[in-house]
Specification:
Blueprint lengths: L1 E9 L6 E8 L6 E10 L2 H8 L1 H4 L12 E2 L3 E10 L9 E6 L4 E8 L3 E4 L9 H4 E4 L11 H23 L7 E4 L5 H10 L5 E6 L4 H6 L5 E4 L9 E5 L4 H11 L3 E6 L13 E3 L2 H32 L4 E6 H13 L7 E6 L1
Parallel strand pairs: 10-11, 10-13, 11-12, 13-14, 14-15, 16-17
Antiparallel strand pairs: 1-2, 1-4, 3-5, 3-7, 3-17, 5-6, 6-9, 7-8, 8-9
Pfam family, one: DUF2855
Organism: Lentzea fradiae
Protein name: NADPH-dependent curcumin reductase CurA
């Protein structure tokens, strides 16, 4: 029997955590045992917990602990036991993982690896159930695993958003205004838009101005109190701030040609025809149809590699280990005051 540790959080008070221990059963047919090795932990994971009941994120890794939940993470794991010949022990994979030392999955083979076909995940979005074998993954770079676990979960949204804007010719605008410009998804989008013929204006808080400027991705960096230029503009709302949106609408008036919300904060429809919610899976499905699955994987993989090559000079990464390191980082990220020039990864 193999012992497993799991960090659970109180679903009503995310600051309360507990480390549980249990014994893993013998594998059944078609099952794999993954040993979680390396994950990132960012505000994105806090979002999974905040909307866990509404969106269903608690369902991926259920626990019997009353009113507790296991927060999903993205990262790398190794197969340490297998009943599937095509996925032998020692296989390294990238995918959706629990705050735990081990995970048992029921493998259904796919082109790039396998999907978890466990009953409790059957109705959940396929993108979260897929595990990519690193030797078949066009985006994988062994020397940049730390950066991949931090950026890869967010970069696909950045890539698809930038692709959609370019496809729509920026709705006739030649300026793109980006809120929360120091956030990973925002500056990933700016990276993808660079060289596309638009002026990029980043909005951020005063304490993050210098970091945002240092990225070299935005033509102009402003605080939220600064006035943007009056010119035809698209607004990319990564902040979810109604006050920032209202200020921009008032300032730009008819010069605001499109207002795009990204993330989970604006899923209600707006009466303003210029406002829309960007739903990444729609653009993903379109591009897979346009380019084929392999073509899509190679295009996004090349883009991610180019991004992480630059990101290596932007962010200092600190490694933490085990359940204690994991809970320490969780508490820090929960405060929402982390330094954008610093990032944390967890080794298990």
């Amino acid at each position: 029997m193999i012992s497993r540790w799991t960090v659970v959080v109180d679903r009503d008070d995310l600051t309360r955590t507990e480390v549980l221990h249990d014994e893993l059963p013998v594998l059944s047919d078609c099952e794999l045992l993954l040993r979680v090795d390396l994950t990132g932990l960012t505000a994105n994971n806090v979002t999974y917990a905040v909307v866990g009941d509404r969106i269903g994120y608690w369902q991926f890794f259920p626990t019997d602990a009353k009113n507790r939940g296991i927060v999903p993470l993205w990262g790398f794991a190794d197969v340490v036991a297998s009943t599937v010949d095509a996925i032998p022990e020692g296989t390294r994979v990238y995918g959706y993982l629990p705050m735990a030392s081990h995970l048992v999955v029921r493998a259904r083979l796919t082109h790039g690896g396998f999907a978890d076909a466990s009953d409790h995940r059957a109705e959940l979005p396929a993108v979260y159930n897929s595990y990519l074998v690193t030797t078949r993954d066009p985006a994988y770079e062994a020397e940049r695993e730390d950066l991949q676990v931090l950026y890869r979960p967010l970069f696909l949204t950045s890539y698809l958003l930038a692709d959609k804007l370019a496809e729509d010719d920026f709705h006739g605008a030649r300026t793109v205004v980006v809120s929360s410009a120091s956030s990973k998804t925002a500056f990933g989008t700016a990276h993808c838009l660079r060289g596309k013929g638009v002026r990029l204006v980043g909005l951020t808080s005063p304490r993050n101005v210098e970091f945002t400027k240092s990225l070299g991705l935005y033509d102009t960096v402003l605080t939220y109190d600064d006035a943007v230029d009056l010119e035809p503009s698209v607004y990319l709302d990564f902040s979810g701030s109604a006050a920032v949106r209202e200020t921009l609408h008032a300032r730009l008036g008819e010069q605001l040609v499109k207002d795009v919300s990204i993330g989970l904060t604006h899923q209600t429809s707006s009466p303003d025809p210029r406002s829309e919610f960007f739903f990444a899976p729609e653009q993903l499905r379109k591009r897979v149809a346009d380019w084929g699955a392999d073509g899509f994987a190679h295009r996004t993989g090349d883009a991610l590699k180019a991004f992480t090559t630059e990101a290596a000079g932007w962010v200092a990464v600190t490694r933490h280990s085990g359940p204690d390191g994991l809970t320490d980082v969780w508490q820090s990220v929960l405060t929402g005051k982390t330094d954008p020039a610093h990032a944390d990864v967890i080794t298990f």
